[in-house]
Design brief:
Blueprint: E1 2-6, E2 12-16, E3 24-27, E4 34-40, E5 45-50, E6 55-60, E7 67-71, E8 78-84, E9 87-92, E10 97-102, E11 110-114, E12 151-154, E13 161-164
Antiparallel strand pairs: 1-2, 2-3, 4-5, 5-6, 6-7, 8-9, 9-10, 10-11, 12-13
Length: 179
């Protein structure tokens, strides 16, 4: 799945398959400017910052169990969001620090390091990585991902895929080759 925010004419947090199909709202009411997203892959929760409404919220992948975790002026200065174990990790443009925040109650805020600037933040840890299994976009014997001549995108599950073409090309009638 691909998770994303949009704060154009109508702000929302959404998800879709990697090929853009099956677009689903996670949150579309009570939002103004959702920016950073973080996923709890184990428990299937999505977290987001709304810098206009000054809140950090959470909902499950279906948009249920939505609640605000942190509200207040400190949110407006946060950039990027990552979650790992009991903490959020984010960057404060106000004091140029990487912050660690208790993800269950918003307390226990600690500055971990100071940086001149940052816009995004990710935590990489072996335990947080999901196991990779065989999938529809693996290289075929001819070195083409999923048998697609240009781009292979996973679809509704790991066994399904959609082929796409780079700019300037169109997908052939076989659904795999680009011309």
């Amino acid at each position: 799945k691909l998770f994303f925010t949009d704060y154009g004419s109508a702000a929302k947090v959404e998800r879709c398959d990697m090929d853009g199909m099956n677009r689903t709202w996670i949150a579309r009411a009570g939002l103004q400017q959702p920016t950073a997203l973080a996923l709890d892959l184990l428990n299937k929760y999505v977290y987001w910052l709304d810098i206009y409404l000054e809140s950090l919220e959470v909902a499950d992948y279906q948009g249920r169990k939505r609640q605000a975790i942190i509200e207040g002026r400190q949110i407006r200065h946060l950039c990027g969001l990552a979650v790992f174990e009991n903490y959020f990790y984010t960057f404060s443009s106000d004091n140029l620090s990487i912050l660690q925040i208790n993800r269950y109650n918003g307390s226990d805020v600690q500055a971990l390091a100071r940086l001149d600037s940052a816009k995004e933040l990710r935590v990489y840890q072996r335990r947080a990585q999901t196991a990779v299994r065989s999938h529809a976009c693996e290289m075929d014997p001819y070195g083409m991902p999923g048998g697609c001549s240009h781009i292979c995108l996973l679809s509704s599950n790991y066994k399904a895929r959609t082929c796409r073409c780079r700019t300037g090309f169109i997908l052939g009638s076989d659904g795999r080759s680009c011309k």
